[in-house]
Amino acid sequence: MREALISLVILCGAVSAWAINPNVRISQYGHTAWRIQDGFLGSAPRAIAQYADGYLWIGGGNGLVRFDGARFLPWTPPPGKHLLSPDIGFLLAARDGSLWIGTSLGLSHWTNKDLINYSSYANASITSIIEDEDGTIWVTRARITDGTGPLCQVTGMDMRCYGKADGLPEDRYSSMARDSAGNFWLAGSTGLTRWRPGSFQTYYPSELKSNAGQVGVSAVLPNPDGSLWVGTAQPGLGLQQLAQGVWKPFVVPELNSRTLEVHSNALYRGRQNALWVGTYRQGIYRIYGSEVDHFDSSEGLSSDYASKFFEDREGNLWVLTSGGIDCFRDLKITTFSAREGLTTPEVDSVQASREGPVWIGGPRALNILDAGRVSSIPTGKGSLGDQVTSLFEDHAGQRWVGLDNSLFIFEKGGRFTRINKPDGSPTGMIYGITEDVDNNLWVLSFGPPRTLIRIYDRKARQEIPTPHIPPANSLVADPRGGIWLGLMNGDLARYQQGRTEIFRFEHKYDSRVNQVLVSPDGSVLGATAFGLIGWSDGKQRTLSAKNGLPCDGVNAVVQDSSGALWLYMPCGLVKIAKSDLQRLWVQPNVRLQPIVFDVFDGVQPGSGAPFESKAVRTPDDRLWFANGRVLQMIDPSHLALNLMAPAVRVEQVIADRKSYSLESDLRVPPGTRDLEIDYTALSFTVPQKVRFRYRLEGRTADWVDPGTRRQAFYTDLRPGTYRFHVIACNNDGVWNNDGATLDFTVAPAWYQTNTFRLLCVAMVVIGAWIFYILRVQHVTRKISARFDERLAERTRIARELHDTLMQTIQASKLIADHALRKRDNPDQAYQSMEELSSWLGQATVQGREALSSLRLSAVETNDLIQALKRATDECRNQNAIAEVGFSVVGDAREMHPFVRDEVYRISYEAIRNACTHSKCTRLDVVLRYAQVLAIRVKDNGRGIDPVVAQKGKDGHFGLQGMRERATRIHSTLTIVSSTDSGTEISIEVPGRIAFRKPRASTLEAIKATFARTQRIDEKGR
């Protein structure tokens, strides 16, 4: 929006705002005050300068502060450095970019981020500092105790001071200036001294008054013509001129009525050659030519004690007072009110004159503004009314004025002539006046009743009351004949030759038409509270916020010479280009980009004047608006723009509420969660309208538009190197696209380093490798366990075959061999064959028993109870035991297959031994499910030899195998035997092993024990 404005005004020859305009009143400037009482400053400011970095530096009793237009930041010297005194009285920004600081105890120099103190000449107060054409720094001092002079020249790291021996009178000098001829002018407590090496002269203002005594000079300012402005604090003398040694009082009525007391260092010539004067008790004065203007605390100045003036790079004027800092700047919209000389307390109507003056109407007065001067015509006298309602100038130059309930012609000489209705009665309150192409004057009267009056040749010829015409609020002549009416209900109407044509629009609340405008292209526009309505060639349009306007309401409308439309709205003054207006007629829902002037540009929008004469254009193309309170003017052809791009600075970085200095290698600590970057743009014209864009390179390439916010916030930045880039534009949309950058690094935490990442990768690889090895070992152990199980089973079968079947077969072979040797003895052979048959039968039984032991494995049946029951049944059937008992105590529970198989084999071996060897008549088998798995096998046979029960029988492996199996499953095997009571074999297996899946370590221990036992067995064989 602002970019478009800049392009437009450059094409139109707009000027840049390099200095405030001296042709307007001080009260018409934009004014901002920062007061001490509001907490902006800790003490009264006494010195101001704009440093090379663009900041304003302000000195006072509490040291230096920097100001960016929004924030006052205390300045802190570098570590190990300090000012000679925090009490600062003068500042000078030198041409080399350094800053000279005058304190109450001496001179300091801030250059290249280093503070240099001239301590050899300390303990003297610096009263002024200047830089000559050669770049040499000169200072004046007071309260000198070292015996040197009051005027000193800085030479490198030293100073040379001039005093009485150099022709400089002893005096207390409060300020200093240098003229174009190279003379130094020093304002002293007794007079004014001109000095240059080898020459001096003193001028005493007391010469002007014989009884004045010694009169001190407080300020001096050379003029280009060689004369000087001289300020004194003496009442009655005040401001003087000194030309060729002769005093000339500055005689101006505005000043003669005051006892002007000029403050030291408070004479300043602006870039437009206006003289600014600061006083001790009367505020500030501006002298421009013969015009003198005044501004004091009653109008908003922070204090009447004004001590210093300064113009910044954008042309804004700064005033230091005992109460704070004031800034004055140009506004694009100029305001006229009682402060500028209007005698009416409010402005209700405005009218342009062909001759140039602007006529202003309101209560109690009719004002005429001509060349900046206001004259007044009182209206509240005699039979004349008090309220000026309408103003109009006809084709003949006659001035028509609506006063209260009557219509008048303002004649030359200041006489008012009343115009009555055709019936001779007063016209009533006039809300609008216009003139058609036939020179008929049409007057809209609110009566009552509401009427439309036609006047021709200074007489009312016709009165048309409602309802013959609809109730109207405004009117304007149509160049093609007739008039247009803005109606009270928000519609438009055209009246011509007794006929009324109404154009209806969508109505809303308070829909009356405030003003009607006919454009040169024939389109008709109406200002309403719900937008701008328009009609052209049968097309009806409504322009409102949905089309891009800042709000809906329109109080007044006027067109400039370029065809652009200006809307005076409650939210500002809006300009719509002619091309945008043409687009609206083609596309009713088009989104426009209007230019908006707001309060920072000087707009004082109100509810609007109640009468028709709300907005006019004067012949010089200036636009005037009556808003019901004040009169406002804008000159579209001479808009002063601020074309200086603002300097952009990054001020500080705050990480987790800790501030860091802006070093070249800024490193933010590891683990930083909240990062704040403060930045600023040094534009002082309207700091509130400075806008920013920023991006963080290394995180995103997109620009962020924070508006006017001066902080950027980031959370949880990853470790890495970043570049923060910020750009800004000033109040008129001029961008500094270079902006400012800040490089910084977010340091990684130990767990965010590449070393840690590589270590993690290595650990993952090693872990994967270890997992692979363990998995291979696990699979290997599992396969080995299966092989061990098979080997153990084969070993058991081998033992059983060796203990039973092989021995029987061997015995059978011996019998057969014996029978073959006794072939000649049939009886002996027959007996041997019987024995052989018996042994072969026994071998068959033993083979069947071996096969049964394999078939009836618990691993196959998966049911320990059924397996053991089958084993007892087989024992009973094969050995004819009289009584066999089998019982189960507790509920059967799921067992680990490996444990179940081992338990079965131990139990089966115990049952088989009882059936085969004990010669018992009763066998009892009890299976108990409890905290442990317990099995008891008891017979009433002949028992087992204790030695055999303990160590086993040579060549037999049954009992030894039972013990080995019990050990493999971490169970307890008990054998109790006697010749009287038989044998009892019991086994107990812990429930954690038998009933639930054991830990891997337990299984591994069982399998390891099993493998170790097998190796021992094989070694024994």
Distinctive features:
Methylamine Dehydrogenase, Chain H; Immunoglobulin-like; alpha+beta; 1021 residues; 38% strand; five-stranded mixed sheet; 5 domains; 12 helices; disordered C terminus; single chain
How much helicity do the residues have?
Answer: 10-25%
Strand order of the largest sheet: 59-65-64-61-62
Number of domain units = 5
Radius of gyration: 57 Å
Instruction: Give the DSSP E fraction (strand runs of 2 or more residues).
Output: 35-45%
Low-confidence parts, pLDDT < 50 over ≥5 residues?
A: 4-15, 856-861, 1016-1021
Number of helices: 12
Distance between the termini: 106 Å
| The CATH fourth-level homologous superfamily of the largest domain | YVTN repeat-like/Quinoprotein amine dehydrogenase
CATH fold name of the largest domain, please? Answer: Methylamine Dehydrogenase, Chain H
What's the story with the biggest beta sheet? Answer: 5 strands, mixed
Q: Tell me the structural class.
A: alpha+beta
Mean pLDDT: 86
- Annotated CATH architecture of the largest domain: 7 Propeller
Give the beta-strand count: 70
Describe this structure in words.
This protein has 1021 residues and is α+β, with helices and mostly antiparallel strands. 20% of the residues lie in helices and 38% in strands. It folds into 5 domains: 40-266, YVTN repeat-like/Quinoprotein amine dehydrogenase (Methylamine Dehydrogenase, Chain H, 7 Propeller), CATH 2.130.10; 338-638, YVTN repeat-like/Quinoprotein amine dehydrogenase (Methylamine Dehydrogenase, Chain H, 7 Propeller); 647-747, Immunoglobulins (Immunoglobulin-like, Sandwich); 753-855; 857-1021, Histidine kinase-like ATPase, C-terminal domain (Heat Shock Protein 90, 2-Layer Sandwich), CATH 3.30.565.10. The strands form 17 sheets. It has a 5-stranded mixed beta sheet, with no helix packed on it. A hairpin with a 5-residue loop joins strand 30 (349-352) and strand 31. Helix 7 runs parallel beside helix 8 (897-917).
